């Protein structure tokens, strides 16, 4: 259980006050209480989270108790993020460190591998009751069956997926897709597991964590229903993404992504490559081509020029969002609205 520590100086000050004032006033009592508990935030549970979507879920669980520290800020990529000295210091001082895993936030690996207390590190790829999907190395998914209307959530509730000590690989040996937060079913598994961890570390606030967990589960349910409603009219319309980051979203909501153009923001595509991609967009009859915030709009306009596709933007990390417990739900709402807007529009 967390405790409040009083310094020698504070103890001397309190003793002096009580010695000279046999009947302390209400104002003095408030002052004494302030001294006693002013260090509560610094003495509280220190939690560090790698990326904004997960940080948002942890923020919701810790609401009224504390605020987790976010490592990945702004428009950095988790693959190439740069740690500041303050970030490393926060990681070293943390009671709990939450990340996806070294295959996503690779710059954190060296700090975590050298950690003397690995039990305080939670990789969300290792927790139970998660649903994992493989990375699709074939960039053309048009042959995949997206038409089957089935209830993914029911499948997830009645079948445990990969409840292993280490995250699994698919039957074909493909690595696991790391964008696990884009599945509402996975989000529920995350908050349930993390709530248990927080209660174990900080049992004095167990009731608050339980209350927050109940509220977060309700919000995830509401967000899921809102997403389904928003995309219901366009979920069978084909679209292409710039890189394969939305497999969980497509799987959970039965969306019809048909391929990826696999363009990197660090590399400029030549005329031949652009021509081949335009041919692909036409062949797959994509209504929209979705880029991400880090790509220049001119590149997207060049890519879809001469095709019937429109341009849209999807942001799987919520780079423009303000960190906090609402960010995850703003992220999911933004994805749904951008999908519906582009796929429902007419070029």
Explained architecture:
It is a single chain. With 347 residues, the protein is an alpha/beta fold. The protein folds into 3 domains: 34 residues; 157 residues, Nitrogenase molybdenum iron protein domain (Rossmann fold, 3-Layer(aba) Sandwich); 113 residues, Rossmann fold (3-Layer(aba) Sandwich), CATH 3.40.50. The chain is built from 13 helices and 8 strands. Strands 2-1-3-4 form a 4-stranded parallel β-sheet, with helices on one face. Helix 8 packs antiparallel against helix 9. The longest helix has 26 residues. The chain is globular, with a radius of gyration of 24 Å. 35% of the residues are buried.
Set out the fold topology.
Elements (H helix, E strand, L loop, with lengths): L7 H13 L5 H12 L2 H4 L3 E3 L2 H10 L7 E2 L14 H9 L2 E4 L9 H5 L7 E3 L28 H7 L25 H18 L4 H26 L7 E3 L5 H7 L3 E4 L10 H13 L4 E4 L5 H8 L5 E4 L13 H18 L3
Parallel strand pairs: 1-2, 1-3, 3-4, 5-6, 5-7, 7-8
């Amino acid at each position: 259980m967390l405790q409040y520590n009083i310094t020698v100086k504070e103890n001397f000050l309190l003793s002096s006050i009580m010695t000279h004032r046999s009947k302390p006033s209400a104002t003095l009592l408030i002052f004494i209480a302030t001294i006693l508990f002013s260090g509560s935030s610094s003495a509280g549970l220190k939690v560090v989270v790698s990326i904004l979507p997960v940080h948002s879920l942890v923020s919701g669980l810790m609401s009224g108790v504390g605020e987790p520290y976010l490592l990945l800020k702004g428009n950095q990529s988790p693959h190439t993020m740069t740690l500041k000295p303050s970030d490393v210091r926060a990681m070293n001082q943390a009671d709990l460190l939450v990340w996806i895993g070294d295959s996503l936030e690779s710059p954190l690996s060296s700090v975590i591998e050298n950690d003397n207390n690995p039990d305080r590190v939670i990789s969300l790829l290792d927790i139970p009751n998660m649903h994992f999907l493989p990375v699709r190395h074939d960039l053309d998914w048009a042959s995949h069956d997206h038409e089957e209307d089935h209830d993914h959530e029911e499948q997830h509730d009645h079948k445990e997926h990969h409840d292993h000590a280490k995250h699994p690989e698919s039957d074909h040996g493909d690595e696991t897709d790391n964008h696990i937060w884009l599945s509402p079913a996975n989000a529920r598994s995350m908050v349930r597991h993390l709530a248990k961890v927080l209660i174990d570390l900080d049992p004095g606030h167990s009731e608050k964590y339980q209350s927050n967990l109940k509220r977060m589960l309700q919000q995830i349910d509401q967000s899921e229903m809102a997403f389904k409603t928003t995309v219901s009219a366009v979920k069978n319309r084909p679209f292409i993404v710039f890189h394969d980051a939305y497999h969980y979203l497509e799987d959970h909501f039965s969306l019809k992504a048909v391929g990826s153009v696999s363009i990197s923001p660090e590399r400029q595509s030549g005329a031949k490559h652009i021509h081949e991609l335009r041919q692909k967009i036409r062949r797959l009859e994509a209504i929209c081509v979705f880029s991400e915030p880090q790509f220049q709009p001119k590149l997207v306009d060049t890519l879809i020029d001469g095709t019937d596709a429109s341009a849209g933007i999807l942001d799987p990390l919520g780079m423009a969002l303000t960190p906090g417990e609402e960010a995850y739900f703003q992220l999911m709402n933004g994805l749904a609205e951008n999908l519906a807007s582009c796929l429902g529009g007419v070029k």
